[in-house]
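so my prof wants the structure for this chain in the C-alpha cells format not the other one, which i didnt know existed until like an hour ago. anyway here's the sequence
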Amino acid sequence: MKVIAPETFTYKGGDRAVLLLHGFTGSTADMKKLGRYLNDRDYTCHAPLYKGHGVPAEELIHTGPKDWWKDVVEGYRFLKEEGYEEIAVIGISLGGVFSLKVGTEFPVKGVVSMCAPMQGRDVERLHNRMISYAKAYKKFEGKEAEQIDAEIKLLEQEPMDSLKDVLHIIEETSENLDLITAPTLVQQGRLDAPDYTNSAPTIFNEVDTQHRQLIWYEQSGHIITLGKEREQVYEDVYRFLNTLDW
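here's what i got, hopefully its the right format
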C-alpha cells in the first residue's frame, strides 16, 4: 500500500503567527488539529515537516537534529518573509525542545513547550524509538510480518550516529533555558514517562520570565495534542496566546 506522507502546512489567518513544531519520529499530523483550532480563531499557523520524517525509517536514520533544526529556522524565516512580524512558537516532545531553543535564539512573543525532555534520555532508548517507528510504518504499509522482521534486522545493523546529536541538542537547550525571557507555557501529560514529567518543572523553574505557567493534564500521556484531553490543551494554548503582548 502506498503511504501518503504528511506535509508541511500553512493555515493563513490574522497577523498573529504561530510556528508549530512536531517531535522526533512524529510529523505535522501531530499538530494539525491544534493548527486548525487556532486558525479558526484567526491565528496564522505554519508547521514545517522535518527532513526524513513521515517516511520510512531507512530514510530518517540518514538525517539528524542539525537537519531538523534547519527546518525549524526556515519555518520561522518563512513566516517573517510572509510579513508576519509577531510570532509565537509551540512544540511537542523534541519539537518542545526546539520551541525552547527558538526562544533562546530568536525574537518571539511567547513559547509553548509540550512534553519536552530535558533530562534522562539515552541513545539506546532513542534507538528503540526508531525501531518502533520503523515497525509501525512498515505495518501501516501493509507488509507481512516476515518481511517486516527481515527489514528490521537489516535496519538494526545500520549505524545511527545522529541519535547522539539528539541528546546533545537536548542538553544544550536545557543549559540555556535562562536565556528565555518571553512568556512561557509548559504543558505536560501526567501519564507520560518520568523523563518528561520530571522535565516539566525544570523548564518552568529555569526560564527567565515571570509570565510563565505549568499545566498538568491528568488523563494524558505524551502526544497531548491528540490525546483524551486535547480540547483542553487547545483551549489552554489559545488562552495563553491571547495574554501575549501582540
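also thought this was worth mentioning. Residues 123-140 form the longest helix (18 residues).
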